[in-house]
Amino acid sequence: MTPAEKPRRLGRGLEALIAAAGPPATAPAAATPPAAAEVAPPNALRELPIAAIQPNPYQPRRSFNPEELHELEQSLRTSGLLQPITVRQGAEGTYQLVAGERRLRAATRLGWSAIPAIVKEFDDRDMLVLAMVENLQRADLNPIDEALGYERLTRDFGHTQQQVADAVGKDRSTVANFLRLLTLPEGIRKLVRDGQLTLGHARALLALPNERAMIEAARRVVDEGLSVRQVERLAHDARPAATPGKPATPAAPRSGAAQDAELRRLTELLRRRLQTDVRIDLQPGSKGAVMLSFYSADDLHRLVELVLGTPLDDA
Fold first, then answer.
1. What tens-digit pLDDT sequence spans the chain (315 residues)?
2. In which residue ranges of the chain is CATH 3.90.1530.10 found?
3. Catalytic residues
4. Going by C-beta distance under 8 Å and a sequence separation of 6 or more, which residues neighbour residue 268?
5. Rounded distance, CA 303 to CA 294, Å?
6. Closest listed residue to residue 86, CA positions, set 144, 24, 39
7. Residues 6 or more apart from 292 whose CB is under 8 A from it?
8. Nearest CA-CA partner of 207 in 183, 171, 176, 174
9. Alpha carbon distance 271, 275 (integer Å)
10. Distances from the Cα of 190 to the Cα of 141, 187, 232, 240, 293, angstroms
11. CA–CA separation, 97 vs 304, rounded Å?
């Protein structure tokens, strides 16, 4: 990272998260690269052999910009490494990278055999959170990789969306919107990852009624250059119109375990579609209420737009 590159603060911040594991020990005046089998003391600043450092298995970034890596190489060649990478102890004298993959890649491409590193103790959750925060601070993740990182925090570590938002310094509604991207068809996700569709396009596509309509609209965005607002219009026009004076046919009443299972199924469908907490209260006579939770004004607006099927400006 060049001296002019100052990372923006997100959540607790990368430095704060790393510092939570304890202060680093002072490096010896003339540190020499340890042998691969040597075990580094906890929280120590060392010169580690690059060959002994393994990738972070929780790294959310799938691709790295070659131009950015080249710029970082030039910075390392000119000024050296201004900020050490962070690792945790691995098995049999190896280390797992925690933060600093771009720096490690650049140093490797320059032919370095060793690199300054802080050795700290982190659990798997910390590994993922630190990798997420570092990438969000240093260079923007593409929306799909960011969504996959949030999903892993919720799936593998049992975090709520609010806990994820607190960890990375974003609004809960923002995290929820990113997670919704993972319901897009794989082909559309690839277009988003490759930069052919913007985040705004992807969010607008989610309002279309089915996968086929989403794919067709995505194709038109790429081929015809449709704007986000034009995609939103497509979604609005695709909503089925209600027939005046024709009430919906009520479903046959259910009872017991079958009714409970159906309520759980419907609750889960709504939760996944709206990306918020949902509760269905069933009352006698097949009446009841559906309750949706929101966590900010933006989150409420998002839910209203989903229910209406149109931006609030058009309602």
1. 444 433 333 444 444 444 444 444 333 333 333 444 355 555 667 899 999 998 887 776 666 778 778 888 888 888 888 889 888 888 888 998 888 888 898 999 999 999 999 888 888 777 777 776 666 655 567 888 888 888 877 877 777 888 888 877 788 888 888 888 988 999 999 999 888 999 999 999 988 888 889 999 999 999 999 999 999 888 888 876 544 555 544 444 444 566 677 777 788 778 777 777 788 888 777 788 888 887 777 778 778 878 887 776 665
2. 14-124
3. 101
4. none
5. 8
6. 24
7. 270, 274, 276, 277, 278, 303
8. 183
9. 5
10. 14, 5, 20, 29, 31
11. 43
Tell how strand 53-54 and strand 278-283 pair up: unpaired
Structure tokens at 241: 């119109």
Written as six digits, the tokens of 103 are 């720096």
Q: What is the CA radius of gyration of the chain?
A: 25
Distance between CA atoms of residues 283 and 285, nearest Å: 6
Cβ-contact 154, 164 below 8 angstroms? yes
User: How far is CA 205 from each of CA 195, 215, 285, rounded to the nearest angstrom?
Assistant: 15, 9, 37
- Hey, how many other C-beta atoms are within 10 angstroms of the C-beta on 113? 11
- Distance between CA 178 and CA 173 in Å, rounded? 9
Q: Give first-to-last CA distance, the chain, whole Å.
A: 47
Q: Which two tokens stand for residue 251?
A: 């479903």
CATH no. of 133-237: 1.10.10.2830
CA atoms of 276 and 268, how far apart (whole Å): 10
> Residue with structure tokens 């049992």?
158
> What is the topology classification, in CATH, of domain 14-124?
3.90.1530
Describe the crossing of helices 211-224 and 228-237 by its angle, rounded to 10 degrees. 150
Q: Is the pTM of this model over 0.90?
A: no
Alpha carbon separation from 40 to 88, 89, 95, 127, 248 (Å, rounded): 10, 8, 9, 19, 69
Choose among 145, 214, 217, 147: nearest CA to 185: 214
Q: Which amino acid is at 187?
A: G
